[in-house]
Amino acid sequence: ALWNDPYLVEITARTIDEERFLVIGKIQKKHWSAVITPRDGNIRIISVRRSRIEEVAIYES
């Protein structure tokens, strides 16, 4: 799972209406990015997709 990556990177996402974060990690040697938001004491997943080139660079730096 993405959340099990010990090198997971979390970045504050730019939003107006609610607090969101972009998390970048690896699943089976492939980079994945997820947008998440805390809600009612839980973490809600907004979206998950393969990471963009810029996000891979952030993860690898």
Quick take:
The protein is mainly beta.
Return residue spans where pLDDT drops below 50 for at least 5 consecutive residues.
none
Helix content: 10-25%
- The portion of residues forming beta strands comes to over 45%
Quaternary state of this entry equals single chain
Number of domains: 1
Helix/strand-derived category reads: mainly beta
Biggest sheet descriptor: 4 strands, antiparallel
Shape: globular
SS summary, helix count: 1
What is the mean pLDDT? Answer: 94
N→C terminal distance: 21 Å
Please provide the count of β strands: 4
Cα-based radius of gyration, to the nearest Å: 11 Å
* N-to-C order of helices and strands: EEEEH
Spatial arrangement of strands, main beta sheet: 1-2-3-4
Protein model, in words:
By secondary structure, the protein is mostly beta strands. It has one domain (2-60). Helix content is 13%, strand content 49%. It has 1 helix and 4 strands; from the N terminus they run E-E-E-E-H. A 4-stranded antiparallel β-sheet has the order 1-2-3-4, covered by helices on one side. Strand 1 and strand 2 form a beta hairpin. It is globular. It starts with 8 loop residues before the first strand and ends with a helix.
